[in-house]
Design brief:
Its EC number is 6.3.5.2. Homodimer. By secondary structure, the protein is an alpha/beta fold. The chain has two domains: 187 residues, HUPs (Rossmann fold, 3-Layer(aba) Sandwich); 96 residues, GMP Synthetase, Chain A, domain 3 (2-Layer Sandwich). Helices cover 45% and strands 20% of the residues. Helix 1 crosses helix 9, helix 4 packs antiparallel against helix 5 and helix 6 crosses helix 7. The protein is globular and about 70 Å long. The N and C termini lie far apart (42 Å). Bound molecules: xanthosine-5'-monophosphate. Xanthosine-5'-monophosphate binds next to helix 7.
Length: 317
Amino acid sequence: NWTAAAFVAETVNHIREKAGDRKVIMALSGGVDSTVAATLIHKAVGPNLYCVFVDNGLLRKNEFDQVLDSYRHMGLNIRGVDASALFYEKLRDVSSPEEKRKIIGGLFIDVFQAEAEKIKDIAFLGQGTIYPDVIESVSVNGPSATIKSHHNVGGLPEKMHLQLIEPLRFLFKDEVRRIGREIGVDEAILERHPFPGPGLAIRILGAVSPEKIALLQEADDIYIRSLKDSGNYHQVWQAGTILLPVQSVGVMGDERTYEYTAALRAVTSHDGMTADWAHLPYDFLAKVSNDIINRVKGINRVVYDISSKPPATIEWE
Ligand code: XMP
């Protein structure tokens, strides 16, 4: 008879016995899994948990500061590392999706390792691995299986020679949310949409530049805030904005424009393996389109993606 309270008590004890008074390091992402895992480990080892949150420059608008703030409020010992310049430099002129993923994954490990070396005598690596990650990293089927093993669980453990602490290894997402609720993790974090590790880099088709990231951040911020304000955010499983490499003609006042197109994506799903496009109300889409085109200079056209997975994927890259 599984209860969240019993799981928490047992897991915290178990981590405490395993770690003793040794140090644990952990990378946080602002997502549900890493946040709940860190909170459990923190309950067990307190200030011996060293958290690192890397700004790869590919996060959503204001996300780095907001997430860092909420971690500090939770009492976590967290270091924010702004590595965006490094990521932009290495991503310049790179347009292949897989190449982008490799560069981002590799740089992330470098930055995290450099932080780890600043702290003496670390013995453990904490990770927010959940059961589907474990299954997917051993399965060979499907593109998202290889994609996710690449970014979520791959790389770090092999490179760092640390023992792993993975308190969520046998849990599904809904159980992770229940545990999170039990230990008081902010509802806004628990109910957040999934966000890919490579971030906005795979939502900018083709080469990434700081200018394009800024454009996409503005448009996406309008979209996501509108979803929340209208009560639609929790009706969809994931939503995001994609910046297309297409420029088209428009008219603004009495000027002709030649600007980019933003595609809005929203899907319903259970696990991300299959998905249907969300049937958002036309009035809602009309308002978001107007707001983006009127407020974001550089975008003069908005389209809505009505493809399901399969055969399309949720992300465009
Ligand atoms: P696709 O696009 O394959 O996405 O239908 C399925 C889910 O996986 C996320 N996704 C990723 N997550 N690293 C991640 O951590 C990645 O490289 C990656 N690619 C896709 C996507 O956002 C969706 O939730």
